[in-house]
Amino acid sequence: MPQRGRPVIKTLTDSQARVLRALESWIADRGGAPTVRELAEQVGMAAPSVNEQLRRLERNGYVRRQPFKSRSLTVLRSVEPLRESLSRLVPVPLVGTVVAGCPVFAPENICGEVLLDQTIIGAGQHFAVKAIGESMIDAGIEPGDILIVRQQQLAESRDIVVALVNDEATVKRLYYDSGSIELRPENSRFKPISIRPEDDLRILGKVIAIRRTAGK
Question: Which residue of the set 15, 25, 135, 178 is catalytic?
Fold first, then answer.
């Protein structure tokens, strides 16, 4: 909360607005607050940077959090009126299947669309895909969740990616380690996928946000 006598700052930086919108969206979709790490993955920023933006948002009266509690974030003041937010919504194609050799946005792949705030997803091409199975459940990805993916061919170690491995699509966390590549699940019941020299690995995009479907 802002200190007594301190004026509330109404103008947010782009980074602050992005973090606040992502926090509002997460709470609306899931009914609870994210951790700083989850919020960082949602907006595609480093966790220390997100933590700094949250500190400034808290100081300026936009959010509140309780010390030593990882999921205590509460939005006190929205970033902008609803009608202004709606004007920023853009459609992202929902991909029903991902097939090797077929462009992601090919008409036969598209089964619908998802409306998202443009300030959250940023620049570039994006697509959405529905999560299947429980291999990423410890990363907060449950069966039926809609994953928002920024289309890109390269990714950094520890990014959650949509990839094709020998023509089979999968969602896993990418790891580089001393020249080796692994796609690791976030569930101890599943084994990592070690990429061999003869394997065909293609990164289709990085997961930048997760949306829980209605009724979950």
Answer: 135
User: Can you list the residues of the chain whose pLDDT is less than 70?
Assistant: 1-11, 79-88, 97-106, 119-120, 213-216
Q: What are phi and psi of 51, to 5 degrees?
A: -60, -40
Q: Of these residues, 78, 85, 157, 172, which one is catalytic?
A: 172
Do residues 112 and 213 touch, judged by C-beta distance below 8 A? Answer: no
Residue 8's pLDDT is 46
* 206 is annotated as an active-site residue: no
Residue tagged 């080796």 (tokens): 180
Nearest to 119 by CA among 90, 98, 145: 90
> What's residue 196's pLDDT?
92
What would the DSSP string read from start to end of 81-136? -HHHHHTTEEEEEEES---TTS-TT-GGGEEEEEEEEHHHH-SS-EEEEE--SSTT
8 Å CB contact between 210 and 148: yes
pLDDT tens, position by position, 70-114: 788 888 887 665 445 445 678 889 988 665 566 666 677 788 888
Is 172 in the active site? Answer: yes
HSE at residue 135, side-chain half, CA atoms within 13 A, is 15
What is the helix, strand, coil percentage profile of the chain, to 5?
25, 30, 45
| Contact yes or no for 34/54 (Cβ under 8 A) | no
